[in-house]
Amino acid sequence: MKKTMISMMVVVLGICSGVFAQELSVEEIVKKANEASYYAGKDGKADVKMTISDSKGSARTREFTILRRDGDGGDQNFYVYFKAPADVRKMAFLVWKHVGKADGRWLWLPALNLNKRIAPGDKRTSFVGSDFLYEDVSGRGIDLDKHELLASSDTHYKIKSVPKDSDTVEFSYYNVWVDKKTFIPQKAEYYDKNDKLYRRVEAVKVEVIQGYPTVMEAVASDLKSGTSTVNVFSNVKYDIGLSERIFTERFLRRPPKEVR
Amino acid sequence: MKLAMTNFSIKHPWIVMLVIVVLTTVFAIQFPKVKFDNDPENMLSQDEYVRVFHNQVKEKYSLYDFVIVGIVNEKHPDGVFNVETLQRIHELTYELLSLKQGPDGKPVVTLTPRTGDKSELTIDLTPESSWSRSLNTAFKHDPNRLFDDEGNSAIIKREIISPSVVDSIKQSELGSLKLEYLMEAPPATREEALVLRDDAMDNPLYNGTLVSEDEKAICVYIPIKSKTYSYNAAALVGELTKGWGSDDQVFITGQPVAQDTFGVEMLVQMATSAPLAGLVIFLLLLVFFRRLSLIIAPMIVAVISVIATMGLLIGLGFDVHIMSSMIAIFLMPIAVADSVHILSEFFDLYHRFNDKAKTLRHVVGHLFRPMLYTSLTTIAGFASLGMTPIPPVRVFGLHVAFGVALAWILTMTLIPAYIMIAVPHKSLKAIGRKRSDDVSTHGLFSVVLARLGSFSYHRWKLTLGVTVVVLMVSIYGITRIQVNDNPVKWFTKTHPIRVADVVLNNHFGGTYTAYLTLSAKRPDAHNCEEKAKVISAEAEKRFRAVLPEATDAFLIKLGELAQLYRNVNSSDMKKCFVELANEAEKIDGEATVSWNTLADEINYLDPEGLTYVSLEASVHKLAGVKDEGKAVLLQRLADFKGLTGDELMDKALAISEEYADLSFREFVFEMETELTAPLFKQPEMLEYVKRLQEHLKDSAVVGKTSSAVDALEKASYELNYVEPPADASEEEKLAYATRNRASWNVPDSSAAIGQVFTQLEGMKKKDSLFHLITKDYQEVNIWVQLKSGDNVDMEAVVAGVESFASREESPVAVNMGWAGLTYLNVVWQDKMVRGMLSSLISSFVVVLVMMMVLFRSPLYGFLAMIPLTVTISFIYGLIGLVGKDYDMPVAILSALTLGLSVDFAIHFLERVREEQKKLGSWKDACTEMFKEPAKAISRNAVTISVGFTPLLVAPLVPYKTVGFFLAAIMAVSWLATLFILPAMLTMLKAWAFKNDS
Q1: Closest chain A residue to B97 measured between Cα atoms?
Q2: CATH level 3 topology of A26-259
Q3: Which of B60, B719, B761 comes nearest A112 by C-beta?
């Protein structure tokens, strides 16, 4: 729990099971990977530049700052504040992630002077139109899948995760390659119900920041539609002492100093 | 010289036979290479502008051809919105989503019934009848082909439109908004089903498209990778829904299905009509000549011509298209025509020579010229199709021309060779004697012909008068011709596709699709001066009263920058705004910073237990905030001393922000957003699109239009929706409703529009917004649903849009472009009509010249053109008068008519000259003409018209049309020849026969 990080956009939640040379069980590997991906530090902040591209060569960019604060029992709060393009400037999102139950989501649209609560829905839907899913941003519960250690190389664990309830997800399973040193999931590949690879999420660049291995560039690709999204992280900081009160509706209307 | 070929054949019949057998074999072995193409899109060449544009639009907006599946329930009081029907639709959707290729290549779907376990089902779409199966084998149609070479499904699953997989924005508990599929799970109760109904009905994107306004029908749109899968995809749906019972009727339609089905049935048609035509001609010849051994020869000529022509077409690598599928049926009657002339005369004259070779030499000798010329004119008629701008028509015309040429050569060689080898003297003698009786004036046929001849001669004025009247009426009819086509109408009215078309267009906005796209005429055009004007006006409004000096300072800077950056491109525009923002920040100065700091500090206070007193204390402690500011805040807040906690904080914040917001920098950002917004994030452009849609809706054929504006307005409504409190009075509720209704609109700023669009981008079905707008928001696509696929209706819609565009100018100049199959049809039709007209004119001229050369007389040349001119005028006049659409099959008939109907005139005039020379008197010659020569012409006319009649029983309308009109053309030109020509000659005998008398 002490770890932190802000890799909300990293996707991949890897979890795996498997015992191997390091005598780590697959459950332990998965747990460590989850912590490395989503729980670095008590809280954190990052600037994100998101580029959504399609096979026709069009590219859209979005810039936002994201704040994260850990609560109890794995619960976390996120605050996403948009800076570009111009029309969505000052738009904000608030997410209360609850482990094992539905998330809370709020939306602030400054040009409409509108604060709206979004009912909990499918977490496997696109995050602001990108190829990342909400679940990639906030993490997929490690108990939702059954994990199996497929292989262990010098550098990586390869873990296969099969959903316990396959009706709620669009994939039939996914494979994750977890870095043995950092426990950062390097790559996740999703297979559809016809056993075809259709989606990939990769951590392209990882740096150590304040002692925490941190994904600095992540790519999600939809192999069926030919679209992909790159998130480049910068100004990553951990343990900055974010107030719990920032993650309330009040701060949607007037964004916290930390994001401006 | 002209007998060279025939003499050789008479002398060496076996060699001729051998050569023909070898050549035929060479052509026949091309057949296995055959490829079929039943896509009417190919009526336009690949690089045709509109086709290129159509494909660009499809690509740009990720649009696909759809198989449209309509589920109609007329029995249930709730229509389709009942638990059972919705459950079925849900299951069907998931079955389609689960489609995969089994190990044996057959489609496999996963069944997920509400009760019971999942199971996999392998489906075999092979038809049950062995006839259909053998056709599929012959035409290489694999009914289970639903996958590409890599085994990927031909159905583009992520783009399926069905209640189970389309987005819905709806209000949920506690004023929250729910973003999920319209039918996440099938409803379990009637109440749930009705909620789903209301959700669907309230969504302008679905009402009239996905669900019918009368609540009786739901459409599922199945996108397919290419049109050629649509027949099989439709069959798959048929298979998956076959156990649905009678309450839920399933209708499958859509242009792709219509086109693909037409292709498949076209093959069946080919396999039946052509042999049937062959059989009919054979029987007819049998009636005329009564000797099997004799009439086999023309049949062989016909069959070889067809085999060679199709072999050539396939060998050259052309696909068999709708047009070329008709080659056999066209060629067969034409190919036997010359042989019929030869046989006819051979019969009548054999008794004179009693020698096969001599008779043949005589007959061929005097038929050579007319036969050559009739063939040449027919060839000219078909070859002129080679000049049309429509590739399949070109291929068709040139190949038929080849076939006719070949038939002529075969007539000159194979017929004599065959008679030499296979027809015994004995049988000829018998026939000869018998037929010599016939030639006398006793037969009924002969009597009728003789009377006809005498009528034309004696009543020539009446005949010509009637002709003139007919011509005038015809010309009137021609002026009323309506060019129109609709591939769905290529099926007979009882065909399931036609039925589905009627039913679904009755319930829905329309199953015919066209896309109207709008894009900027000059992207990236920026007028700095204009923008500066807007900014300065807005600045005056906002700041003048409160900050007069700062406003002046700002306007000066603005003026300088506007001067500096006059006519710039968009990247400089950005720089310009950055500079302006920097200047504005300087003007804002410390006051704004101070107010913002104050607001932030207040924002971070703990509202728990906050009172005016504690707030006042906190404010006083603040560093980095100007004292004047603190004083203003506290003074204004003094009126609200009674407030505590959150309420007090909100008030304090509101006051601070009121001042903090008086920022020129923020103002510049805001202006930048508005003034540099992409075209279709600008409110006035979206309003324009909305007006355009309203205008489109006024047309009776347009059932529905959908655009990004519809999605935007719906989202804006749902986002802004406020549920009236439970205890609200009626009056209050009304006020809420009015307020809510007002937000069903285009938001009034680019920022607001952009923010609502961003929500739509993040819907559950990713990117579905981008079927209607490009990702850069510079271009939009309006999906127009038409209730009719008739070209005239589509043309009317196009014209309507043009008149709208000229009446109402777009705020920014835009290009409007049409795409979609319904529109493509209009374009190729138009080309077809023009192409046919020019080919008709050119072949008319060619034939006229040929006639003048043939008869070595301009007068006879013109005379020869008269029957066909009358025929063509009459046929097209008739089409105009009875209101039959001038469609694809009718169009190709024009060039054809010319080549065919001149034949009679050639034979007639050629004989007239001969007889005139022999008898010296036109009166006698005319009587003679209506004996044997008229009979030969009549036999031919009957053979050809009857030969085309099997087309009348065809299940596909274009073939019926061709069958009917060809028969009509033959009949009319036969009559025209036998009536008008003698009458004309009687009138003109002084000129026509001056050399002879």
Answers
A1: A193
A2: outer membrane lipoprotein receptor (LolB), chain A (2.50.20)
A3: B719
